[in-house]
Amino acid sequence: MKADAVVPMTLIGVVGTPKCLGEVVRFSDEEGPENDLCLLKIKDLPGVLMITPVEFIAPLRHGRKSFSVLGFPDSDPQGRNSIGILQAADAKGLVQMESEGALLVKGGFSGAPVWSPDLGGFVGLVVTELNEQKVAWCIPSRTIAAFNPELRVRFRIPESDRPRIHDYGEDDPNLLLFGPVSENATRRLTARIRTAGSHFRVDLKYETLDRNRTIRGGYVTFVMHPSFTSEEEDAYELFSLLDESGVAENHFWCIESFTVAAIGDAGDTSLTLDLGKVRPRPRGFR
């Protein structure tokens, strides 16, 4: 395979199942199933298609999350669904899939996007399988984002994986999960705090310092303290899109300080900031 090569395609799931040509934009020439990726651009398609881009998820943990995937084994044009449970990533970064339904993930599923109901998004692409053991593997979202940085990927911590606080005076889960660094050679997390009535407004800013390092995933997830709540929304995770300059911003209101984390690059970059150490800070914020 080479760049600019043209291959025939059939668009599954589109009304009329149209056939078209796909131009190879990018592919990996490295060996191993974890590198079995190719990006195609649809061309010469008659008419206009309204297809909404799908959202991919990079979770804190894959283990024990459910999955559902549609494949086309034995060249069956109707397609078959397989369900099961995800396990942790292996040494090559591939996520193990264990089939639990009547149909297995087998030949004909390769390249299919893997949906996880527990995470509310796609977590990867099927790449290889062992039928006899009812096991398959998928390339996870963060690996796909490294291959195709334009793919939008949100880092997520579902409720089942959110930390439980046993001692509110001592436990700081963001430091344990994401480390103590608020700035590295390529990314920086800062905050501005000001008085807003009986509360304090915190403006968060995630910056890309080294533009030579490719920005991946498009999103930054700001992770709050588990006790931080809002009557209007799930306030534990706040999502922001990076702008063209590699900056993502968000804000919230609180009555006291805690540690905030920012996760970018499809889960590969993690920063934390102790709001109690931000200077300057308004009177009474502690």
Structure description:
With about 290 residues, this protein is mostly beta strands. The protein has three domains: about 5-45, no CATH class; about 55-155, Thrombin, subunit H, CATH 2.40.10; about 170-275, Macroglobulin (MG2) domain (Immunoglobulin-like, Sandwich). The chain is about 5% helix and about 45% strand. The protein contains two helices and 18 strands. The protein has helices spanning about 140-145, 175-180; strands at about 5-10, 20-25, 40-45, 55-60, 65-70, 80-90, 95-100, 115, 120-130, 135-140, 150-155, 185-195, 200-210, 215-225, 235-240, 245-255, 260-265, 270-275. Strands 4, 11, 14, 15, 17 and 18 form a six-stranded mixed beta sheet that branches. Strand 8 (about 115) and strand 9 form a beta hairpin. The protein starts with 5 loop residues before the first strand and ends in a 12-residue tail after the last strand. The mean pLDDT is about 90. InterPro entries: Peptidase_S1_PA (IPR009003). It comes from Granulicella aggregans.
